[in-house]
Amino acid sequence: MHDNSTYHDLIDRFHQKHVLVIGDLILDVYLKGASTRLSPEAPVAIVDVAEKIPLLGGSANTVCNLRTLGASVTYCTVTGNDAEGDTALRLLNNIGVQARTIIRHPNRDTVVKTRVVAGSHVITRFDCGTQTPIDHGTVLQLIAHIESNFHQYDAVIISDYDKGVITAPLLEAINRLREQHPVFLAVDSKRLPFFASLQPDLIKPNYDEAVKLLDLESRSTARVEQLMAEGERLTAKTQAKLIAATLDHDGSLFFENGESVYHAHAPAVASPQVAGAGDTFLSAITLAYASGGDIPHSAEIASAAAAIAVSKESTSSCAAAELKNWFYGKAKFIHSLADLGSLCENYRAQGKRIVFTNGCFDILHSGHVTYLHCARELGDVLVVGINTDESIKRLKGESRPINALADRIQVLSGLSTIDHIIPFGDAHDDTPVPVIKVVRPNVFVKGGDYTKDKLPEAAAVEENGGEIVFIPQIPDQSTTAIIRRISTTTASAPTLTMANS
């Protein structure tokens, strides 16, 4: 078991890193709807499209993952000067990536992969766009963009989907630049021998790519054992210093200079959506290495990031706050408002409804459990604010709380209805207003003993478009009543004395 503080330290350094990504931009488009009948022209399903969702794919998904993990990114690619290219640049701008190093080519069409989805099932996929190698003039333009700040990058990722951007002259230029300014280089490609001249620091073949490269028979079982003996051959064919072979549910195998050095197990994920998982893995492990991580820590960070991404719908990414929370032992306790804000931004991007409530939760009783269950039913995610010990003393007197903050958090964490817990309250403000401004809940829940005019946080909720819901209290269920009953019982109990022997 690794020390979680090491993981947190590494992840905290991600935002200090500047990564150059070179590769093929792909626009992933999802046409989502319902299918209830077959076409009269052919035995195929008719999908009534309800929404069209464009997402960043290919190397652009690697860019997206690096950004959500906190890094700064420069993106060098070529796309069409078309409506699809406009959409891709808008999506990149939304995540803080500038277009100045992206070449818009008038004679190329942006590569688009369109998936038709009925319910949760992909019915078909159709691809379009220019996939021939870029011309010599465009190669020179791209090299100029890559050269401009090469010495400033902490890492370089080549994300090759063989759509025409990565060419031999481009590799020669990168080799020259690395001789002048050595920098960590990671490569992800289905044609890894093409990159052997670069002697990459890291490559990331998946299982199918690895067995094809080695001319081995593909297996459904014992895949780890099959590849574990192939480190030397993989290294000889790719000239990579470190190889991370990803085997989906079998985890990932790491080879260093031809030797098998680590096996990271894959966390179990129900109904994984695997599109783009490799991009998440590559982004996380590159940042972990650039931040000073060793193989085991970097491998576990990459595995966790990929597991988080595949648990979401469509082409997804992993936020740094999600990753940190994973290494709190998937604990529900969030240590900072910044981390909670990042998590909530991610939930909003997924279209999830956030519910927030708060309280002391000093002695947890059935009234609390019912209340929290009802709150959770109002949305997809329940965030609970809990008063600090000092806050409770200010509000309820020096005799409270009965249970310290750490104990109260541990008890609340045992409830499946709660997704995240964060403490609040200081000498300047004992209300949850600062938390509400970060969470921006869709629903704010309070007990039926409150009214809107008694809530100083009401304005903060409504300013962000949230609604306030009051849940009726269960009679005779309160912490104060429990303490009173205990005090009464203790006071009336007979005193026993021991006779001298």
Automatic annotation (TrEMBL):
<keyword id="KW-0418">Kinase</keyword>
<dbReference type="InterPro" id="IPR004821">
    <property type="entry name" value="Cyt_trans-like"/>
</dbReference>
<keyword id="KW-0548">Nucleotidyltransferase</keyword>
<protein>
    <recommendedName>
        <fullName>Bifunctional protein HldE</fullName>
        <ecNumber>2.7.1.167</ecNumber>
        <ecNumber>2.7.7.70</ecNumber>
    </recommendedName>
</protein>
<keyword id="KW-0547">Nucleotide-binding</keyword>
<comment type="function">
    <text>Catalyzes the ADP transfer from ATP to D-glycero-beta-D-manno-heptose 1-phosphate, yielding ADP-D-glycero-beta-D-manno-heptose.</text>
</comment>
<dbReference type="Pfam" id="PF00294">
    <property type="entry name" value="PfkB"/>
</dbReference>
<dbReference type="GO" id="GO:0005524">
    <property type="term" value="F:ATP binding"/>
</dbReference>
<feature type="region of interest" description="Ribokinase">
    <location>
        <begin position="1"/>
        <end position="329"/>
    </location>
</feature>
<keyword id="KW-0808">Transferase</keyword>
<feature type="region of interest" description="Cytidylyltransferase">
    <location>
        <begin position="356"/>
        <end position="501"/>
    </location>
</feature>
<dbReference type="GO" id="GO:0033786">
    <property type="term" value="F:heptose-1-phosphate adenylyltransferase activity"/>
</dbReference>
<feature type="binding site">
    <location>
        <begin position="206"/>
        <end position="209"/>
    </location>
    <ligand>
        <name>ATP</name>
    </ligand>
</feature>
<dbReference type="GO" id="GO:0033785">
    <property type="term" value="F:heptose 7-phosphate kinase activity"/>
</dbReference>
<dbReference type="InterPro" id="IPR011914">
    <property type="entry name" value="RfaE_dom_II"/>
</dbReference>
<comment type="pathway">
    <text>Nucleotide-sugar biosynthesis; ADP-L-glycero-beta-D-manno-heptose biosynthesis; ADP-L-glycero-beta-D-manno-heptose from D-glycero-beta-D-manno-heptose 7-phosphate: step 1/4.</text>
</comment>
<comment type="similarity">
    <text>In the C-terminal section; belongs to the cytidylyltransferase family.</text>
</comment>
<keyword id="KW-0067">ATP-binding</keyword>
<dbReference type="InterPro" id="IPR023030">
    <property type="entry name" value="Bifunc_HldE"/>
</dbReference>
<comment type="similarity">
    <text>In the N-terminal section; belongs to the carbohydrate kinase PfkB family.</text>
</comment>
<keyword id="KW-0511">Multifunctional enzyme</keyword>
<dbReference type="Pfam" id="PF01467">
    <property type="entry name" value="CTP_transf_like"/>
</dbReference>
<dbReference type="InterPro" id="IPR014729">
    <property type="entry name" value="Rossmann-like_a/b/a_fold"/>
</dbReference>
<feature type="active site">
    <location>
        <position position="279"/>
    </location>
</feature>
<feature type="domain" description="Carbohydrate kinase PfkB">
    <location>
        <begin position="17"/>
        <end position="319"/>
    </location>
</feature>
<dbReference type="InterPro" id="IPR011611">
    <property type="entry name" value="PfkB_dom"/>
</dbReference>
<comment type="pathway">
    <text>Nucleotide-sugar biosynthesis; ADP-L-glycero-beta-D-manno-heptose biosynthesis; ADP-L-glycero-beta-D-manno-heptose from D-glycero-beta-D-manno-heptose 7-phosphate: step 3/4.</text>
</comment>
<keyword id="KW-0119">Carbohydrate metabolism</keyword>
<dbReference type="GO" id="GO:0005829">
    <property type="term" value="C:cytosol"/>
</dbReference>
<dbReference type="GO" id="GO:0016773">
    <property type="term" value="F:phosphotransferase activity, alcohol group as acceptor"/>
</dbReference>
<feature type="domain" description="Cytidyltransferase-like">
    <location>
        <begin position="356"/>
        <end position="484"/>
    </location>
</feature>
<comment type="subunit">
    <text>Homodimer.</text>
</comment>
<dbReference type="InterPro" id="IPR029056">
    <property type="entry name" value="Ribokinase-like"/>
</dbReference>
